[in-house]
User: What shape does this take?
Amino acid sequence: MAYTAQEILEGLAEIVAEETGLPTDAVAKEKSFTDDLDIDSLSMMTIVTHAEDKFGVRIPDDEVKNLTTVGDAVTYIEGAQAA
Amino acid sequence: MTAAPASRDVVVTGLGATTPLGGDAPSTWQAALAGESGARTLENDWAETYGLPVTFAATIKVDPAERLSRPETKRMDPSTQYAMIAAREAWQDAGAPEVDGERLGAVVSSGIGGIWTTLDGWDTLKERGARRMLPMTVPMLMPNSPAAYVSLEFGAKAGAHALVSACASGAEAIGYGLDMIRTGRADVVVCGGTEATIHPMPIAAFAASRTLSLRNDDPQRASRPYDVDRDGFVIGEGAAVVVLESAEHAAARGARVYARLAGVGLSADAYHITSPDPEGTGQVSAMRRALEDADVTSRDVVHVNAHATSTKVGDLTETASIRTLMGGEADHVRLSATKSMTGHLLGGAGALETLFTVKAVSERLAPPTINVENPDPELQVPLVRATPEKLPDGDVVAVNNSFGFGGHNVALVVTNA
Assistant: This one.
């Protein structure tokens, strides 16, 4: 069963919170991973690894650079699980 | 910037630890004076699952998760977590000195490195494939990770180093810190040792080398250096960190000084990969060089914190070496084997025992050696047994010995401030 966009956002927020120590409600759709959440490239790859695991999707490295905001990641994961 | 002139006088201004006896340096020292044991039965299924012959260890007393943020526990191997907890305590204990980062060093060693991370990574790879490998795996497993994180924490730019010499690593780190100040590279150095190897693989490996105590039915009495019934060491974990500072720097800021770190002596046995040279030549050389470096004589030595791990051969070699070096003067030494209480912290041991030696000099109390019911008749130096013993007033000299697999010998000399 596919996750809804809201479920993906919540799940992603938990992963980001674990990695960064930020509260989950700081992880909003419009937030930039680098500029707003101060996530470096190693942390971003860690988040991607956990997100792939949690949502059962594959996020190729070439796609990661296009995921500027949390919303971008939610949209990508939502589409990837439908594929 | 202009380099400060090198200083020969180096003092200890901060202490920090997280050990099987306590979550900080004061509680660890108090538990040691009280003669407590940090050994306990492991609450897991490793004996059943893997056939481990040893079912106990000296595990850390306070969970690092109580002292670190959640992201820190996820991106640091346990060996780095322990080092960070000890380093933060030592730094605060030193009064969080204001020092130019270019004049601040970090030297934190581990004998084994991030072995939990290494083995967890291998498990992940075997079970789930390369795609599931966590990106932080390499910076977590590298043995310089504790030194690197301590450098990051305090902005230490004079150098971050991780000297590796098995069970002498923590002492060698402190000796290197001393030299960083003496050679003018730094005014303040945060230095020490850490280890986190209570994982079934290293326990099985140490057991395979026949060096671990098998006293599974009585963990608290298993580590018994110099007792005739000793049967090996008790594996321990934890970290200890000291803040070293040039005497001038400490005086200029009015810092509280515990003791002087007066000398370091190093040698290698070049005899056997694990067994100490039975003649103790290398051990004697290390102690002699340390005393010469400190410009004191064996006549001045009132206390030795022994390496003494509770193995049949190692313990006696050390006291024979002390007797060879000091002759009749060894009768005036109060010898303490604190691994009887802490277990063997491997790369953390030399640092923790330096911390104990500093406290012994500062409080004039030699900590006890527990579990010595029947002293080995070949023991050649007076041993502090069940209760602490008072050290003399006036100027005193103490030595901390640390030896490691590979034939590494490190002696550090501590004198009163």
About this structure: Chain A has four helices and no strands. The two ends of chain A are 13 Å apart (CA to CA). Chain A touches chain B at residues 18-21, 42-43, 45-46, 49, 52-53, 58 (CB under 8 Å).
